[in-house]
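COMPLEX REQUEST
Ligand: magnesium ion
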Amino acid sequence: MSVHPWVAWYAFRRHTAYPLGAFTEGLTNTVFGLLRAYILIAVWAERPSLGGYDVTDAVTFCFLTQALLGAVQVFGGMDLTARIRTGDVAIDLYRPVGLLGWWLADDVGRALATLLLRAGPPLLTGAIIFDLRAPSPARAAAFAAAFALAVLVSFALRYLVALAMFWLSDDQGVQMISLVLTLFFSGMVLPLVVFPGALGTAAGWLPWSALIQVPADVYLGKRDVAGALAFQAAWAAALLAAAHLVTRAARHRLVVQGG
Amino acid sequence: MIEVTDVARTFTVRRRTGRFRRVRTTVRAVDGMSFTVPRGQFLGYLGPNGAGKSTTIKMLTGILTPSAGSVRVCGLDPSRQRTTLARRIGVVFGQRTTLWWDLPLRDSLALVRRLYRVESAAHRERLDELTALLELGPFLDTPVRQLSLGQRMRGDLAAALLHAPELLILDEPTIGLDVVSKATVRGFLERLNTERGTTILLTTHDLGDIERLCDRVLIVDRGRPVFDGDLPALRARADTGRTLVVDLAEPGPPVDLGGVTVARVAGPRQWLALPPDANPAAVIAALSARYEIRDLALREPDIEEVVARLYQGVVSPAAG
Ligand SMILES: Nc1ncnc2c1ncn2[C@@H]1O[C@H](COP(=O)(O)OP(=O)(O)OP(=O)(O)O)[C@@H](O)[C@H]1O
Ligand SMILES: [Mg+2]
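STATUS: Structure written out below.
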């Protein structure tokens, strides 16, 4: 049996080793969820069917995305970045398995652990204070698939950003650009459905929408499930293929830092 | 086991010289390196800081691709067949760890078993053996982040050896260890080499490691070999020869013996530098005929000094 499930399991354990920290972050997500919810309620009071969402959809979208943001890591970053900067990536590179597969397994474990520890508080609080939409079992299953694909897309994007470290001595610029793009085009700042005209159309086709907007639409029943999953899967495949190529290129002109 | 032929590795570094201007300079970390290591050898790989040792090790393990020349390890090309090679060699970088920081040592070792696909029974047997030899027992269940440096180092050695590699490559494995841990690690490496026949390449700045363990010493400087031979050959490189330390009955002026120079005087104690070809017995006889001697000791040339001279380029560079 391959080592990858074990890597994922170890990552899961590592990220659940300190549940208190994760729980605090879950509470922070909840507080921001409440703030966002009241802003959205105010907006929807002015424009009751903005972007095809009613106010319940908007509030559900808000708490759902607060629950997901940790797992799909919209604020970016990955342990691999620091390992490339310090040269610890040398350790990853002499293992008898590829770099991409190893870190993908690690990230899957991390995403599941984060979902488990951080999704509860925002969803529960939202459901108690507001009236949230509950999905049918079929929708819930479709949403689970959309979430899994969102994790893959998120991983591939962050992995590509991390690998940029092999070429750049300083990654702050790339991290910054990536953060802005992710927050804005994932639907995290505002649901993409409220973006006007061409910007909204373009945002819907970009990979970042696969992180938050598409899974939320699947949950809310705003989108054809097969089309949504195919869209995410296509981006996941394309980005992972790119990640594979960039890994190969990096290995050829690789500079590992430190003695 | 290892064949390195005319290998070079350069790094391009961009340095800021002004607000916007940058110059690109090329650092030749390894430059025209050739050596071979036969199966079963224990090779000490020495050199001053920045000599290119770690860079060479990264090329041997396939982490870096050489800029020129060819590297073969276990008959494989490391950078092209990295994962195949990784199953056959063990590597320890003293300053880094393969262990999972937040998990008990035992769990990291269990993951290593999955990584190298070691059979469960074979794994248990090797783990028991390594636990006994490296004295891992007391901290097998401690999270790695709570281990001391010496404990972690022994854990890393175990992790590198669970799959019974033919070749073990060590980059400063005794860095920062106390005398007891060092002795444990050295004793362990010695057994591994003599009893299992594992080929070992060891990089260290601790010459005690070299004196205790190595069949052969390869010294590099600025990316090139400057010495290749065994310990006696290395000592013979010293133009100082041995030192005779005598305690005379009374303090006095430097003793006067033909062909022997007094290197140092401290009260009644004097240090006599013997030429490499001198016969110590004759010198002692001549000395005791003319002076009253309380005590004496004959010292081999200090290996630290020999190596320091080599590093400073006092000894003419030539492969021995
Ligand atoms: N990633 C890098 N980028 C630029 N230069 C590098 C890089 N890695 C190593 N070098 C340079 O290559 C040379 C050899 O470095 P290396 O780490 O191989 O030395 P070393 O023999 O291991 O030294 P030490 O005993 O200090 O560990 C040094 O001059 C170093 O500055
Ligand atoms: Mg080094």
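REMARKS: Chain B touches chain A at residues 11, 14, 54, 58, 61-65, 79, 82-84, 86-87, 91, 93, 95-98, 100-103, 107, 111, 114-117, 171 (CB under 8 Å). The first strand of chain B starts at residue 2 and ends at 16.
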